[in-house]
Each structure stands twice: as C-alpha cells, then as structure tokens.
Amino acid sequence: LSIYVVLQIVLVLNTLDDRWPLGDILFGIAFYVIGQAILYIFSVRICDTAKHYIDGLFFGTICTLLAVMMVYKYWDSITKEDLEFSVGSKQNVWEVRELLGEEEYSNQGGY
C-alpha cells in the first residue's frame, strides 16, 4: 500500500499539472488509517458502549469503503475521458469516423 501511494504521488508531482489528485490520495490514506485504528484499537470500547449490538468492524469497514471510493475518485480525476456518462448515450466514443484509404493504409506499413 505504501509503495502504491508513493508511486501515485510521484506520478501526480512529475506528470500532471493539476495538484488536486493529491487531496484524493490524502483523504484515502486518512480514511484507511482511521478505519484500521477503529478496527484494532477502539473495537472493544465501541462494542461495550453499544452493548454488543455493533462493534468496530462496522465502522472500520465503512472507513475502508470510503478509502476505496477515494481511490476511484483519484483515478477519475487523473483520466481525461469521461466514460462514466457515455454508457447510456447514443454516441459511441470509440467509433471510427473515417476509414483509411488504400494509399494511406499502405503508407502506414500495413500488410
């Protein structure tokens, strides 16, 4: 996990002009750390306080879910195409508009 985070920070700092994805990474790390702390440190206290109706696993899982959602948000913020909203549309994003002619195809190194 730490290698992934370091590599993504290097990616944002070296290749992207926008620094907003760093916030997505930091929120994801924060949610993950909070979820693990709730799960391993505060689970018994939460369980005793709630009279064994709920324990730290519930809140830890919610925080882990939020961390995974931040990974998706990070990915969505660094990609250019907006494929999420092109699913229901009539227009095909990947449609080939013009075919290459014979001359252009032979210049491309085709067989």
Automatic annotation (TrEMBL):
Subcellular location: Endomembrane system; Endoplasmic reticulum membrane
Database matches in InterPro entries: Chs7
Superkingdom of the organism of origin: Eukaryota
One Pfam family named in its UniProt record: Chs7
Gene Ontology biological process terms from the UniProt entry: cell wall organization; protein folding; protein transport
GO cellular component: endoplasmic reticulum membrane
Name of the protein: Chitin synthase export chaperone
Taxonomic classification: Eukaryota, Fungi, Fungi incertae sedis, Mucoromycota, Glomeromycotina
